[in-house]
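[audit] Reproducing an earlier prediction to check determinism. Same input, same settings, fresh worker. If the tokens differ from the archived copy the diff job will pick it up downstream; this log only records the rerun itself.
[audit] input (126 residues):
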Amino acid sequence: MNVPEDLRYTSDHEWARIEGTRVRIGITDYAQDALGDVVFVQVPAVGAVVTAGATITEVESTKSVSDIYAPVSGTVVETNEDLADAPQRLNEDPYGEGWICVLELADEAEVSAMLDAAGYRALVDG
């Protein structure tokens, strides 16, 4: 299982890459593996205001439909529109081309509440 050291994680299997005051988010390698083949990704609308822990979007796989939760609060400033034509990118490259959206961070303190790579590994291994 791939768990990049430079990211933060949630117990719901989302990752966050801090980019200044913005946070790029997606689902973890563990999550994409558990989902199976992803066939549809609904990206959130640019301008949407989200709260940490609230549902931000849905991912549909051959196994199920799963909610994706916002790891931090903020405003959606960018979405990965390429996922409409290539939802399998979540499976193929969850930490790269498979990102879902970028949020303008509302509260930097929420980042410190997220798991680091070691904490996330302990969660999924435990």
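[audit] rerun output stored. Observation attached for the diff report: The longest strand covers residues 55-61.
[audit] end
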